[in-house]
Amino acid sequence: MGSRRQTQVSETIAHLAGDFFARESNVKALITVTHADVSLNFKEVRVFFSVLPQTSEGLVLKFAKRARSDFRHYLRTHTRLRPIPTVDFLIDLGEKNRQRVDELTRK
């Protein structure tokens, strides 16, 4: 997994990403940040999220990629992290697959 600090930083960034999407996204979709993975040197973070309805995934991903620098600024003002990590946003395919399995097992 990683260090306790890595876990804490990951959870904090995931929480702040959820807040950021709730405030800044103008896409009419439910965006759920599932988790964040911080690199061992804390210089990079990948934030994973799921989107409902799934037809809005493309729009949300475009928004997220465009908003990376805004989110870094948001992190700078809401945490004491230094340096602020480089951010990438990705659709959480694991969550998407889990939802599909749930859907199939209900039938």
From TrEMBL:
Keyword Iron-sulfur: no
InterPro entries documented for this protein: KH_dom-like_a/b, RbfA, RbfA_dom_sf, Ribosome-bd_factorA_CS
Keywords: Ribosome biogenesis
PROSITE patterns in the cross-refs: RBFA (PS01319)
A biological-process GO annotation: rRNA processing
Keyword Chloroplast appears in the UniProt entry: no
Gene3D superfamilies: 3.30.300.20
Name of the protein described by the UniProt record: Ribosome-binding factor A
